[in-house]
Amino acid sequence: MFTRILAVVMLAILLTTVALSAVWWVTLRNRQIDDRLERLAAEARDIAYLAANLNRSGLESYLGSPTRSYLNEKARQVNEEFGAYIVVVDRYGNMMDNLETAYSESPDFARSLSGQEISDALVRILQGETIRLRSSAGGAPTFTVGVPFLQDGYVMGAVFIQTRAQQIESGLSETLGQIILLAAGILLLSGVAVFLFIRSALRPLDRLTAATEAMAGGDFTVRVDDTRGGAELRGVSRAFNSMAARLHDVEDSRREFVANVSHELRTPITSIRGFAEGLADGVIPEEERESTLRLIANESRRISNLVSDLLTLSRMDKDVVLLNCTVFDINEMLRRAVIRRMNDLEAKGIAISCECEEDPCLVRADADRIEQVVINLLDNAVKFTGEGGSIVLESAVRDGKAEMTVRDDGPGVAPEDRDRIFERFFTADRARTSGRGTGLGLSICKRVMEMHGQSICLLHTEKGAAFRFTLEHVKGEKPAALPAEP
User: Fold this and answer.
1) Which CATH architecture group holds 220-321?
2) Which of 458, 460, 456 is nearest to 447 (CA)?
3) Rounded to whole angstroms, how far apart are CA atoms 145 and 57?
4) Tens of pLDDT along 247-289?
5) Is the CATH number of domain 2-174 3.30.450.20?
6) pTM to 2 decimals?
7) DSSP characters for 235-274?
């Protein structure tokens, strides 16, 4: 990935550098040509000035004048610098040029001169026009400048200079070489800078990749630095750390779940095996055989309840269980739950009461699932209420919802355990006591209420424990019959 990104960025930099270099080259070329043409035009104006100082009688009349000497010297300098063909002509038909010099120095250029082109240009110049043009004489590109010279405001003659284009464009190849070297240097420096930048920017991504591979190998403790890189990369790193933390919690829960299930199964299985072997070996007296068989049956029932609860939770988690919602009297369900547990209540001498603000109190829910919740909460209350204690079942209507509360005056829930009381196989002593339940009852209650879109919570109490759950309250409808007693 790093190589692909670097290649794409370098290609973009290369194309940009080439484009900018081309623009720069064309700009410099045009500027240099303009500067040299302006220089040539300035030389033409100097020659025109010298020619204007000659007498009106014609150029040939003053062969020995100082001005003519200056003019010849200027023409020689222009020829040396530009290799140009120079013509000076006045209105009297007098003309001077350096054709012989041009032939001796550059025969091909001299032979390429076009008389018609020169004549047409002189006509334009004598009409007072200053010309500057590029043409192709004999297939060779040339540059031409021409200026008139004046006396007393009248055009008295013309200066015509023509040179090969390569003379004007000389030196551009060196400039092109410099531009190429400069572009190569910029490209190299840009490449190094981009390489270092991308490597630095992608280093968090490399760490993220390594962490992902470690997580795929089962290491959920790995974390990445979420303070480096761009905003997007920091966001991805934070999301990864959050995911890793959740997966770590899930893995811990899974291991704890397996350990708890193993523990819950191992205890009754060990008891069943020990009692069965005792019966088979005859070490258990005849008078204890009946009680031993009853213990085996109880432990078997415990295993059956555990498996049943696990299957129930699994089906609820997979949304396989569908709710069959009807309208029924929740107060009647509370009273029936008390009757079903009366033997246990009387055995411990527990006083129980139902306090209902509205009777009947109609709710819409799945009666079978809600009865499971009521029984689980009542069983917990009976389990953790001491001899001679009390339990209160309450129902009330608030803000269109029915609220049911199961209170006991037992030891209550320790503050450090309150946030975990609804977890499966919670390992606090109060929530999981060997031989006194599967530790899944409250988890099933919570899942049932979630399926109804309602809530269940542990209330803050000074003494004992109190669990409250809510249901949809209805009025004016005929209640359905509650499920038959099991």
Assistant:
1) Orthogonal Bundle (1.10)
2) 456
3) 26
4) 887 777 777 677 767 766 777 788 888 888 888 888 888 888 8
5) yes
6) 0.47
7) HHHHHHHHHHHHHHHHHHHHHHHHHHHHHHHHHHHHHHHH
